[in-house]
Amino acid sequence: MPEHALSDRELAISRLIEGSRDTVFAAFTEVRHLSQWWGPTGFTTTTSTFEFSEGGVWEFMMHAPDGTDYPNWIKWIEIRPPELIVLRHGERSDDPEQFTTSIEFEERPDGTEVTLRTEFQTKALRDKAIEHFGALEAGGETLRSLAEYVATGPRRKDRF
Amino acid sequence: MCLYRHMTSRVARAKTTADAFNAIAEPHRREILTLLKTQERAVADIAEAMGMNQPAVSKHLRVLRQVGLVYVQPVGKQRRYGLDARGLEPVHTWTRGFSQYWNESFDRLNAHVRGMEGEEG
Description:
heterodimer, A: Alpha-D-Glucose-1,6-Bisphosphate, Chain A, domain 4, 7-stranded antiparallel sheet, B: mainly alpha, Arc Repressor Mutant, subunit A, 5 helices
């Protein structure tokens, strides 16, 4: 395992997406695409501001399946089609806990490997984030009940 | 972090001065945990495997014990150390929020990209 993967300031995740690099990259560049996939299962987004350019901002609200709204603010720092996107992500433009995320797109024989790395400004900020866990809502429960509902209940036609 | 709050279940509040995150940030301590993954070992054994002196290893073991990543067991005159993986739970819980968020987003991205390529073709 690469040393940086266990850094106390960074987290990374990779996934092979079945599509050409141009298509996968394009899915990150427009609201009509982003609104179809950004966020965990059952979540939807409403965009208020969107400009895909270096220095441009995407402001949107994430709606959880239980009705809770989570504000999101993203500013693109670097855009290198179709290889790399670097962004700042927080709840608001003045969120002191913003963090930097880089998204790399690499061509593979059967698709495009997307690697997302999130780096925190300081270890102290990360520690602060951990403390927040003491007072959490049960988001996991909500998702579990949704999964059960989808599996056993009537089919939801309004999912996304 | 905050953005992943809703993906994370409740965990005990971590100490600010010493927690599993701090403990595994140090490469030598990660190496010790790797060594203990397969078997219990004495300090001398760990020191030899790592090419470090015993006092330095003992210092790291003390930190790892404080955060509950390592247990110690007297075997005869020796004290043997072992990995207590339960101590890693805060790390798992925290990364689960992040990984669940992105795994599920990537599931949806994959489905959407397949649709996009279908439209083009």
